[in-house]
Amino acid sequence: MTAVSAAPWWGVPVIAGGFLILGAVLGFLLNRLQDNRRAKREHEQRWYDHIRDLSGRAVATTREYAHRVYSIDEAEGGQDDDDDGDNLTLRFATAYEVFDRLQNLAGELSIAAPKDVNDAMEKILSAAHDLRVAFYRGELAHDSSAAISTAGNKFIEVVRQYLRVDDVRPVGSKPRIPRPDRPRS
Fold it and tell me: Residue 55 burial by CB count (10 A; 0-12/13-18/19+): exposed, middle or buried?
């Protein structure tokens, strides 16, 4: 019969302590990884919210600018007979102010947004400037209004693509236009 040596008394606590330390390190690393992912996702969301806010204000300002220019054109065209010179001057000043806001928004977007969004915003500014020039030359025509409208719609399309906005419809609603790959029900 051979004698089996007994395990040292400190063996079990050392093994348990080793697993405890390993578990703590592993838990720390996994929590840090999860926190980094969450922080990155939140940062990206804040960035997209900022771009969305600036873009929404740019679209609203573009529409307001076009409206202001056309209201001046209508007042000069004699459609608003009750307008006096002071009111017309105020309309001009308001249109200038809106154009300046549009330029300021373009500047903010140029810092925050990617190149394709900035290019689309530049087209809006160009169309707004062309609308302004056409108005002063007395050549305000359908082409001028169509250009700013087209530039605005293209800007919206580019921003939606950058923000990865899909056209979604409410759950349970039927599509209004049947898709070619589905039979009409």
Answer: buried
Packed helices 115-137 and 11-76: angle between N→C axes, nearest 10 degrees: 10
Give one DSSP letter per residue of 119-183, joined into a string.
HHHHHHHHHHHHHHHHHHHT---HHHHHHHHHHHHHHHHHHHHHTT------TTPPPSS--TTS-
Residues whose CB is less than 8 angstroms from the CB of residue 112 and which lie 6 or more positions away in sequence, other chains included: 47, 50, 51, 54
Q: Packing angle between helix 115-137 and helix 85-112, nearest 10 degrees?
A: 160
Report how far residue 87's alpha carbon sits from residue 72's, in angstroms, rounded to the nearest whole number.
Answer: 10
- What is the CB neighbour count within 10 angstroms for residue 37? 10
Q: For the chain, give the number of residues.
A: 185
pLDDT tens digits for 45-58? 888 899 999 999 99
CB atoms within 10 A of CB 23: 10
Tell me the three state secondary structure of residue 80: coil
pTM of the model: 0.65
Chain position carrying tokens 């169509």: 146
